[in-house]
Amino acid sequence: GTRLQDLCRHGAGGVHGGPIRAALVSNMQIDVEWFLAEFPDLIRCAQLIVCYQSEKRDDSLEQEVVRVRGGRANLLIRRPPLPIKYGTHHSKFFILVFDDKLRVIIHTANMTQEQMFKTQGAWWQDFRFKGPASPPSCRFEEDLLDYLGHYDVPRETEVWANMLRQMRRTDFSDARCLGLVASVPGYHRGANVNKYGHMKVRSLLEGREFDSCFESSPLVYQ
């Protein structure tokens, strides 16, 4: 099978992309010691952002990452705010910036040792940077940036602003998926009712025609 640790190295998939220049890691739970040991390229990359919402309200992750990196320069550790007392930011993904591409990895595992030995799902794709023939934007790009806006990071935070710039210069138009479905805590009404979660899934499927052989097919999701 495919290991997340391997996807987070520059040689994943046989494509050499040089060192990781910037990384955004989002997860629900992170085992600090295991994370540091298994993802050394991420921890030491030039610019690192880690967003998580562990039930533990201590600062051990930030303290250990600062220790390994030798300081707080070009580092952002953030717990995204919750608009209501129910729900959480449960998204699990990596965005990795290389010299010649940007890699998106969306997966289902908490960053803990025990979950890495269970069956998990992962989708990933490498995207090139925009050229003269690239569209200025696309639905995947706008949906991704819209979701990250809910992390409510001040725009003047340089390491965050740089990550957004890297995404804006990336051509996501050939994304191999039906659409990007984000889960955002809170209540969604009006124009936002179909933007997230199961309502977004419904709106994406409504716009597709399927062959008759799929009429009684089961729906598998996690």
Q: What does this molecule look like?
A:
The protein is of the alpha/beta class and 222 residues long. It has a single domain, classed as Endonuclease Chain A (Endonuclease, Chain A, 2-Layer Sandwich). Helices cover 26% and strands 15% of the residues. It has helices at 4-7, 32-38, 40-43, 60-69, 139-149, 158-168, 197-206; strands at residues 22-27, 47-52, 75-78, 93-97, 102-107, 122-127. A six-stranded mixed sheet has the order 3-2-1-4-5-6, with helices on both faces. The radius of gyration is 18 Å and the shape is globular. The two termini are 18 Å apart.
Q: Secondary structure elements and their pairing?
A:
Layout: H1 4-7, E1 22-27, H2 32-38, H3 40-43, E2 47-52, H4 60-69, E3 75-78, E4 93-97, E5 102-107, E6 122-127, H5 139-149, H6 158-168, H7 197-206
Parallel strand pairs: 1-2, 2-3
Antiparallel strand pairs: 1-4, 4-5, 5-6
Unreliable spans are: none
- Look at the structure and name the CATH superfamily: Endonuclease Chain A
Would you state the CATH class?
A: Alpha Beta
Percent of residues in helices = 25-40%
**Structure summary, number of beta strands:** 6
Provide the gyration radius in Å: 18 Å
Q: Give me the CATH architecture, please.
A: 2-Layer Sandwich
Percentage beta strand: 5-15%
Instruction: Give the strand line-up of the largest sheet.
Output: 3-2-1-4-5-6
Choose one word for the global shape.
globular
Mean pLDDT: 89
> Would you tell me the structural class of the helices and strands?
alpha/beta
Order of helices and strands: HEHHEHEEEEHHH
Number of helices: 7
Q: Any idea how many domains?
A: 1
Taking the sheet with the most strands, its summary is: 6 strands, mixed
Q: Could you tell me how far the N terminus lies from the C terminus, measured between alpha carbons in angstroms?
A: 18 Å
The CATH topology is given as Endonuclease, Chain A
GO molecular function, one term: double-stranded DNA binding
InterPro entries: Tdp1
Pfam family, one: Tyr-DNA_phospho
Main location: nucleus
